[in-house]
Design brief:
By secondary structure, the protein is of the alpha/beta class. 42% of the residues lie in helices and 15% in strands. The longest helix has 20 residues, at 84-103. The structure holds (3R)-3-hydroxy-L-norvaline. (3R)-3-hydroxy-L-norvaline is lined by residues 76-77, 115-117, 140, 167-169, 180-182.
Length: 310
């Protein structure tokens, strides 16, 4: 059985559904700290779980005979800056609890998301390589970088089969973004459709690596299915799809909504975004497990608008 933490979140909502499609709802235990998330999971088991409550986690793993954990619960970059110590505690303690379950042989496989937030101001910004200077400035990025090192450590020392991707900004239309720096690229679609002026918290030329949710789901499932011996990176893989600025996605939306208006009002998130890469080199993922993305910006925008307006 597969247990997902943070299943009610932006990624969790879609990844849990994809796992249920693939393996059957009867094999899936969706968990979230928010009990209202239950409504999303009529197709599988749902349990309330605060990931800092390790006893409860162990209890659920035993109760459902879980063999795989997708540990998605985390505090993201923008919200994390409001409470750095708690963000560190939640992001790190919960990961270590899950890794310990792998070490103890209670679970066989772990998925844990990292992020391009592991990079920083001295990282090469264009085509950022897998291995380079990593000097994250947010507590979220620091926790992801430390988490990557812990994943590699648990694999090397204890043989724990933990796998990870450094996601770029993820763009989906099925659930709201949860407090990150890339959220604008999700929110801008609703504003365009609802005919509202969009206030963008990043500057118009702020390029960031992004990925449409179906590509992110595919990358995750592909990585988790790859034979063990093909996984040469046990910290976290660079993965990339597209890269665009607010101005570019706005221009794309103007093709559908010629009267759509935007105003730029950069806040503290602009500084976070400026410390992250513009684009990512993901050769290793392409070589090791044949990663390929399907959606560029135009195809993504069309797909989102088709779904939200039909
Ligand atoms: C954030 N969406 O903005 C996350 C992400 C690439 C960044 O990990 O915090």
């Amino acid at each position: 059985k597969i247990l997902i933490t943070g299943a009610g979140g932006q990624l969790g909502s879609e990844l849990t559904a994809a796992l249920a499609d693939k393996f059957g709802g009867a094999t899936i235990i969706a968990t979230d700290i928010n009990e209202n998330a239950k409504d999303k999971f009529d197709y599988c088991t749902f349990e309330v779980l605060d990931v800092l409550d390790n006893n409860r986690l162990v209890e659920l793993i035993d109760k459902y005979e879980v063999s795989e954990v997708y540990h998605l619960a985390a505090i993201l970059s923008a919200v994390g800056e409001k409470n750095p110590l708690f963000t560190w505690k939640l992001n790190m303690d919960s990961l270590l609890n899950v890794l310990e379950l792998g070490k103890a042989g209670k679970i066989e496989k772990i998925y844990w998301p990292s992020s391009i937030a592991v990079f920083g101001k001295n990282t090469p910004a264009d085509n950022t390589p897998q291995d380079c200077v990593m000097d994250p400035t947010t507590v979220y990025g620091i926790s992801k970088l430390a988490g990557e090192r812990w994943c590699a450590y648990y694999f090397e020392k204890y043989g724990v089969d933990v796998r990870s991707l450094r996601y770029p900004g993820l763009i989906g239309y099925k659930s709201a973004a949860g407090g990150g720096t890339t959220d604008y690229a999700v929110d801008i679609f609703r504003a365009a459709i609802e005919g509202e002026e969009f206030e963008c918290f990043l500057a118009e030329d702020m390029y960031l690596p992004m990925m449409y949710m179906p590509d992110a789901i595919k990358a995750t499932l592909d990585l988790m299915q790859a034979p063990k011996e093909d996984i040469s990176i046990r910290s976290s893989y660079n993965v990339s799809a597209v890269s665009f600025s607010p101005k570019e996605i706005y221009s794309e939306l103007l093709k559908y909504y010629p009267d759509f208006k935007i105003k730029y009002n950069p806040d503290f998130r602009q500084e976070i975004a400026a410390s992250w890469p513009d684009s990512i080199d993901d050769t290793r993922a392409r070589l090791d497990w044949d990663w390929q993305h399907n959606y560029d910006m135009s195809k993504m925008a069309k797909d989102i608008l088709d779904h939200l307006t039909n």
